[in-house]
Amino acid sequence: MFTARRRWERKGLQLGLLVLVVGGVFIVRQTQGELLAELYNGITRPLEVFQSEPNQQQYLKDAKVQELQAKITELESQNQNLKALLKYVEKEPKDVPTIPARVVGRSADNWWQQVSLNRGSLAGIQEGYVVKAEGGLVGLIDNVTSNTSRVLLISDMTSQVGVNISRTGAKGILRGDGSADAVLEFYEKVPNVKPGDVVSTSTYSSKFPSGVPIGKIKSLDLKRLPASVATVELFPPIRSLDWVTVNPKPPVVPAPENKDTQK
């Protein structure tokens, strides 16, 4: 019985040692796995950072290049607009003071009604001054501060301009239509006009100098009552104004006196 007891104790010891060995191997493997994982992460993490940094730098570089390209495009556009404005100014009479200004404000709600300019009374601008752009008449200064001024556009529905047809001299009133077109109401019932005729300011206008181009006739309605009307396509780029010129309002020319009444 003693011998059998010793045998079971020996087997129990062997079994315990086996459990310890297996457990130790499992623990060692787990520890080695964690160590290997940490070692792998320690090696690859700097490489991942190193690889991501060039991508971030390239992204920032591309963004900067795009920003510079956009600025270059904007400057080229401004340069072209200024060249066109300069050519237009050179055509103005030398005795007429010309003040260049840029559109700096425009409301979406009043897009076709008014714009704000970056020059005001300190630059010599006054209410009633005439505003032009490449193509012709733009509007009239109706409000002035020291450094800004506001333009009532000819496309405003309250705007009225005395005009005539350059080819025939037919006259009428041009009214704004809140768009790139305007409505011309003729004084005559059947005026001598046709599509394509150029419309310019009239000598009868007290607000604008005569002969300033405005647009061309787009379509006609000669059956309209009480007077014929035409749709006029405006020459100046009212939709996308940038640079303009401001000129003093024309002087009021007094009506000639009757010689018989002179003393």
UniProtKB/TrEMBL annotation:
- InterPro entries in alphabetical order: Cell/Rod_1, Cell/Rod_MreC_2, MreC, MreC_beta-barrel_core
A Gene Ontology CC term for this entry?
A: plasma membrane
In the record, biological process GO terms are: regulation of cell shape
- Sorted alphabetically, which CDD domains does this protein's record hold? bZIP
Alphabetically list the UniProt keywords. Cell shape, Coiled coil
What stretch or stretches form a coiled coil here?
A: 65-92
Q: Name the Pfam families on file.
A: MreC (PF04085)
UniProt keyword annotation of Coiled coil present: yes
Give start and end of each Rod shape-determining protein MreC beta-barrel core domain: 103-246
Q: Which positions carry the signal peptide feature in this UniProt record?
A: none
Instruction: Tell me yes or no: is Nucleotide-binding among this UniProt entry's keywords.
Output: no
What family is this protein classified in? Belongs to the MreC family.
Q: What PANTHER family does its record include? A: CELL SHAPE-DETERMINING PROTEIN MREC (PTHR34138:SF1)
What protein am I looking at? Cell shape-determining protein MreC
Taxonomy, top ranks, is: Bacteria, Bacillati, Cyanobacteriota, Cyanophyceae, Oscillatoriophycideae
Q: Which gene encodes it?
A: mreC
